Amino acid sequence: MLNEKQLERINKLLLTRTFKFKGQIINDLPESMSSDIDYKFKVDGYRKMTSVGEEYDYALLNVVITGLNDKFSQLLFTPEDNEQGKMIAKSFENRLYKFYSNLNLDMTRFLRIFDENIRTTIDSLTFDIQTPLTESKMSRMSRNAVRTTVKDILNVIKDKENGEFYLPGEDGEEYSFSNLPFTYSVILYVEIDETLDGYQLNGSFTSDSDVIEILIKFNPKTLRKNIYNIIGELNDIVAHELEHGFQYINEGKVYQDPPSDSLGYYTQPDEIKSQRVGFRRVAKLRKLPFNNVVSEWFDTHRDIHGLSENEQEIVINEILDRQW
């Protein structure tokens, strides 16, 4: 049995993780009605329970369903607010043993990393389904913001000067767009390196000051050759970071230290969503298939993401499979 300090450490780890349940939740349904459900959980302690005449300590799991990514799960767990919707959900209510059993088994397998003999039971299951702005609508809202911000960044880059630049102005001005529900500014760090063959580009969003920070390092001698790719990548980064801004400012996201490992970082639900927004912007700009844009970025940015081949495939599949 895990002691209190062990449970505390495990629950701290679980705070940063969102798990996925995939498969049938009711017997005898066609495969097309398989479910795709996101959930989080923590361990609330132990309770003695009897199994096959013997008494054991069972870990009590507090489960929160955070995402219903398929039509059947949505119909079942968040039915339409009418008599027909309620009737459909009610008809399946007593047939969910398979779901609870398999969900409990998924969590047990994870916890056996820490205690190979652990027994678990779902003590609480609640729903906290977010209904964020859809990706396509957010993309429409940020389109003009991305275009304007990238244009301003390019105007600085073309001067080919080292330095720290504040956009849209040096006196604390902010970008403000009537169809974007928050304001922001940009700090651009430009580093000239005449030994560099191509360029390096990265970005981040600082939630406490609503600032997008962008770092670009390039060789001025090869800038013209690389400008097309730089423009595409700037569109990706700005759209990506604006999506993070929306998550913090309009969806109430609270900053947490990101996972230290690359796979954990890149598979965070909010990170997956922001990657999709950025890559879709590039795909539209370049008139390329979305799948190709995603694969190309991960192939050409191994020095940034630090993922192994298998981890890279996991992240790409998450980006391609996830729907909002």
Summary of the model, kept short:
With 324 residues, the protein is of the alpha/beta class.
Map the helices and strands.
Blueprint: H1 4-15, E1 19-23, E2 35-51, E3 54-68, H2 71-77, H3 83-92, H4 97-111, E4 119-127, H5 135-157, E5 163-167, E6 185-192, E7 199-206, E8 211-218, H6 223-249, H7 262-266, H8 269-286, H9 290-300, H10 302-305, H11 309-321
Helix pairs in contact: 5-6, 5-8, 6-8, 8-9, 8-11, 9-11
- Distance between the ends: 40 Å
Residue runs with pLDDT of under 50 for 5 or more positions: none
Whole-number total of structural domains:
2
The residue-averaged pLDDT reads 82
- What proportion of the residues form beta strands (DSSP E)? 15-25%
Element pattern in H and E: HEEEHHHEHEEEEHHHHHH
Indicate the percent of residues in helices. Answer: 40-55%
Rg estimate, integer Å: 23 Å
Strand order of the biggest β-sheet: 1-2-3-4
DSSP E strands, number: 8
Structural class, from secondary structure content?
Answer: alpha/beta
